[in-house]
Amino acid sequence: MTAPMDREGIEKLIDGMTLKEKVGQLTMLSGELVQTGPASAPVTSAAIQNGEVGSLLNLVGPDRIRDAQRHAVEGSRLKIPLFFSLDVLHGLRTMFPIPFGESAAFDPALWEATARVAAEECGVEGIDLTFAPMIDIARDPRWGRTLEGPGEDRLVGQRLARAKVRGYQTANLASPTAIAATAKHFAGYGAVQAGREYASVDMSERLLHEVYLPPFKAAVEAGVACIMPAFIDLNGTPMSINKRLLRGLVRERWGFDGVMVSDWSSVAELLVHGVAADRAEAAALALNASVDIDMMGKGAYYDGLPEALDRGLVDMATIDEAVRRVLLLKLRLGLFDDPYRRCGSPEAIAAIKAQPARRALARETARKSIVLLTHAEGTLPLKKSLKAIAIVGPFGQIVGGNSEPDAVVRIAELVDQFKAAFPNATISAATGSAVEQPSESGLEAALRDARQSDVIVLCVGERVDMAGEASSRAYPGLPQPQQDLARAMLETGKPVVVLLFSGRPLILPDWLAERAKAILAVWHPGSEGAGAIVDLLSGAHNPSGRLTMSWPADVGQIPIFFAERPTGRPRLEEEHFSSKYLDIPNAPRFAFGHGLSYTSFAMTNPRATKWTITAEETTEILVDVRNTGLMTGEHTVFLFIRDLVSSITRPSLELKDFAKIALAPGELKTMRFTLSPDQLSFLGPDLEPVLEPGTFEVLVGPSADPERLQRLELRVHPAPGIV
Questions:
Q1: How far is residue 88's CA from residue 98's CA, in Å, rounded to a whole number?
Q2: How much of the chain exceeds pLDDT 70, in percent?
């Protein structure tokens, strides 16, 4: 373009476009044969030059992207640039812990920082838009995509959404080191039936609005550039055509003016859902619902929209509306000004040269994400006087848990980290078994090492491809060969420290939870995972991660979460006719927020600056926290409320705030939480916010375990002057 593009120029472009060029802008195709869906198709230079495609996904690298972009801006009639997109879920070159693991850090500043690094690295590889953050609330660990999200609570999802959008996009989306974020998958995807990928979702409007929608609203308020509707149908309506929610709620009520992009082929799959007879009907339904871009839709938009227009199923104004949003995104991304701006600009190259700082951030993130689940007899940190450490298990030689190049910490990395931290100890490594297959010779080798050791570090769990999309598991526990390996290690009589690698909560056998000296959830910790693990086991750093999902004790408890509504017949041990199982407890094995430390903390004197407030006032909740142990550590404090009497049944616990505090041994600090009337309100019968006067229980503590919470009461009056 010879002159800078602006909104007026966008309108002139639209006026000069043919119908085929318009629907081309609404078409996203895969530029590489990367398997992120059932099938991929290559994109020809002729298709780009003819204006048949407006954006590409899965094409990475500045040279490749420059070549594809050249066909658009030099070879096409209107010279409209493409934008390039990719799933950059937890890093591109520098790999951070999986998002679910990272959520355990309970640190929005950290979440933002890792997104910022990913965006800077995208600025060298040519990526303009990422399909992240995934902010689906998940309360069923059978669902594989738990790996990508924030866990079970909406407040965590809201804060993670805001942090990631800030980190990816910054205040200037045209910057070469900023990329567009995509909030996905709108909405309710984490509640698929029986935890089974792509299955339908049936839930009440109240549950949808109270739990599953708030993270997406937070993303919109943070200025997210793109939203992706989910594959699923919700209460009988596929989300890709849910006009009431996509257009009515998100666009009209929330004011979202960005782009909506379908998930992979979800528009074409409307035929399989049984709500469209052909591609023209499917395309019209999705476009009218406000889906702007058809991703890999088998021609649903490109072939279907012209026919839909001829049949009167859509009008040109609706097509133009979608084209306008796509072009405005390209304008915001700065692509009209410089279509190659993220293909290695000096600014972007300078940013990624800070590699030591990036590696340090990846290590810090992994450390803060790891959760110490159990700990007995002061086993950790491991003593420097140890003479022999046996690393056993299929995850003991490859740590990192990603399939992308450079994402996997190579063989012997964990061994090398142990050698550096324990120079006087002999470090051995044996797999013992494969992840899902036993190995008799492997077990014999592992036993030889274990019997000669002072401590066994048992590395077990699930591969990264056992979680994620299309990786639902009916029983999300340890595969039997790994259970057999764990039993064999315990039978040696040596102390066993378990490292659990996973993308979800795992159901652990009782005997392992009871007999292991320590268990740590290390997730798939990224490219600096080995160093982070040894940092914690050696005591160089103190564990501080906390669970963002309740861990079930048995699959029969699923779904399980802390924010249950009370029943008229709560569980009573001595009462048969109460809400309980006959064969297992109700409580999870590990509660939301659970996480141990090498030191200890005491919380005392919870209090309020005002014990009674009106609908126009706020109060502060204060609690004193002291480090009563011998090691500096970070402590996370959660603030919950319970509305004791309300017109709509409220959950027994509602998370309203959380914060972390670092304390030296013996140090005491006061934590302060602001509690506003908005935080005490709820959605009334019409699903509009309402604040009812009455008494609220305010609870503070280290987790959602009721026995560890301290309580105080707060009263709300309807108007000033009433006592």
A1: 11
A2: 95
3-state secondary structure of 111: helix
pLDDT at position 404 is 37
Nearest residue to 92 via CA among 348, 433, 452? 348
Q: How many residues belong to the chain?
A: 723
- 218 phi/psi in degrees, rounded to 5: -60, -40
User: What counts of helices (H) and strands (E) characterise the chain?
Assistant: 22, 26
pLDDT surpassing 70 at residue 410? no
**Residue type present at position 403:** S
H-type alpha helices, 422-462 = 440-451
Residue matched to tokens 């596929």: 238
Contact (CB, 8 A) for 390 and 428: yes
Answer whether residue 573 shows pLDDT above 60: yes
Say if strands 654-663 and 633-643 run parallel, antiparallel, or are unpaired. antiparallel
Tell me the pLDDT of the chain averaged across its residues.
94
- List the structure tokens of 184: 């996905």
Could you check whether the bond before residue 665 is cis, i.e. omega within 30 degrees of 0?
no
Determine contact, residues 316/309, Cβ cutoff 8 Å. Answer: yes
Give me the mean pLDDT over the 152-164 stretch.
98
pLDDT at residue 4, rounded to an integer: 83
Position 447 pLDDT exceeds 70: yes
- Please choose, from the candidates 414, 446, 601, the residue with its C-alpha nearest in 3D space to the C-alpha of residue 522: 414
The CA-CA-CA angle for residues 333, 334, 340, to 5°, reads: 100
pLDDT in tens, 627-678: 999 999 999 999 999 999 999 999 999 999 999 999 999 999 999 999 999 9
Neighbouring-strand partners of residue 634:
662
Contact 211, 137 (CB under 8 A): yes
Tokens of 511: 């005997």
Nearest CA-CA partner of 24 in 319, 334, 329: 319
The pLDDT-based confidence of 74 (bands split at 50, 70, 90) is: very high
> Which of left, alpha, beta for 406 (phi over 0: left; psi -120 to 50: alpha)?
left
Distance CA 400, CA 407 (A): 6
- For the annotated catalytic residues, the residue numbers are 263
As a dihedral over the C-alpha atoms of residue 625, residue 630, residue 636, residue 637, rounded to 10 degrees, the angle is -20
Give the closest residue to 498 by CA, choosing from 510, 481, 484, 515: 515
Residue 352 pLDDT class (50, 70, 90 cuts): confident
91 phi, psi to nearest 5 deg: 125, 160
Residue from 281, 320, 322, 321 nearest 303 by CA: 281
Find out whether 105 and 369 touch, Cβ atoms under 8 Å: yes
